[in-house]
Amino acid sequence: xxxxxxxxxxxxxxxxxxMLSHLLxxxxxxxxxxxxxxxxxxxxxxxxxxxxxxxxxxxxxxxVGERLQREGLRHEGIELRFAGESxxxxxxxxxxxAITVYGQQEVVKDLIAARLAAGGSILFEADAVRLDGLxxxxxxxxxxxxxRDEELHCDFVAGCDGFHGVSRGAVxxxxxxxxxxTYPFAWLGVLAAAPxxxxxxxxxxxxxxxxxxxxxxxxxxxxxxxxxxxxxxAAWPDERIWAELRARLETVPGWSLNEGPILEKSxxxxxxxxxxxxxxxxxxxxxxxxxIVPPTGAKGMNLALADVALLGDAFxxxxxxGRTDLLETYSAKALRRVWRxxxxxxxxxxxxxxxxxxxPYESKLQTATLRYVATSEAYARSLSENYVGLPEV
Length: 393
Ligand code: FAD
Ligand code: DHB
Fold this sequence. Notes:
Layout: E1 3-5, E2 8-11, H1 15-26, E3 31-34, H2 39-44, E4 50-51, H3 53-61, H4 66-71, E5 73-75, E6 78-82, E7 85-89, H5 91-95, E8 99-101, H6 104-117, E9 121-123, E10 126-132, E11 140-145, E12 148-153, E13 156-159, E14 177-192, E15 202-204, E16 211-215, E17 221-227, H7 238-249, E18 262-276, E19 279-280, E20 283-285, E21 291-292, H8 300-321, H9 325-352, H10 360-375, H11 377-388
Parallel strand pairs: 1-12, 2-3, 2-13, 3-9, 6-15, 13-20
Antiparallel strand pairs: 4-8, 5-8, 6-7, 10-11, 11-12, 14-17, 14-18, 15-16, 16-17, 18-21, 19-20
Bound molecules: flavin-adenine dinucleotide (FAD) and 3,4-dihydroxybenzoic acid (DHB).
3,4-dihydroxybenzoic acid (DHB) binds at residues 48-50, 201, 212, 214, 222, 295-296, 298.
């Protein structure tokens, strides 16, 4: 069976796997990235859009922030709409930090370009099927490419293959503990060729359900609607989507959104999920492979990048001088940030969505919480420091 060898075998070319490969390269450590989908697919898969200050700093510091700095939209606040009111949360004034709106697929494009320019190895349409020997010095990733079985031999495996990947399942039964929650709703997301009607994101709590107004550029809007978890996308023709967005967002006198052709639409289920620990023997798990948050706090991609920043340092310490301490503390350190983001994402989700049909008590609590954010500097600062990302957790 054809075999190849590298130092760190990385499964998955999402933000976690690609960033890890890039950080390892900067430290002189070799890696091979296996990705089941095509390059075109991963570069055009529409997902998250908000980068915390720490993620922007990491991308820029490591030399892949040039286009991000040119095209990314720096936002210093967000708007909350509820009960016919509108309030701006001045995040930068409250924390000294900001977020940058820049599509996840743009981050992925920039990282792929940087890896390929440096001679890095990313195998697209290479589907990892099984991990072996994780408790030995030389684990193997078995994968299929062009209808053939191949092997990647390595010192360590980084499982960066998202929620549906194979890596997490390679850990023997009884080792991992799972914590999870599903929510009784999903998000319908659309990309529209319509100039955003605002400069900052709007998070709206409405009796018909949550809505989010975001963007990708001065010409393109990104909008989301809370829908039922089993909703059929075919039941949402463009006119229905615009009517619902108007109903939930046009709650402030004199404000209206800009409409335009819908370029793409999809439905994403909502889940909170954590698996502990994030390491077993020579397998290190990162990103969505070990934790999922509902997207309301915009944390998913940021957590994936924060995990691999730790992992890059840990592998560097091992290859530089055989130090194992950072490999050993990786999981515990990463999980502190993961659980902070779990709480924040659950809290934002609970405050902004319609949780149960006909539960007026719940909806009064939500309005009270939103008013508190709108009137208390302390509470607004708490939301802001979580949203822009805490440097230390
Ligand atoms: P991924 O980006 O999922 O990358 C994993 C990669 O592994 C994929 O490219 C996959 O093809 C590959 N892979 C899987 N199995 C294998 C295998 N067996 N062999 C080889 N390769 C494999 N977050 C937000 O903050 N806001 C949002 O609006 C938002 N929307 C989302 C919409 C969707 C549909 C999804 C799935 C996620 C969304 N997220 C959002 C979350 C955010 O995009 C993720 O947290 C982020 O992608 C995590 O990065 P990752 O690298 O860990 O995983
Ligand atoms: C976007 C996605 C989010 O989940 C969020 O909370 C804010 C913005 C976006 O895709 O732009």
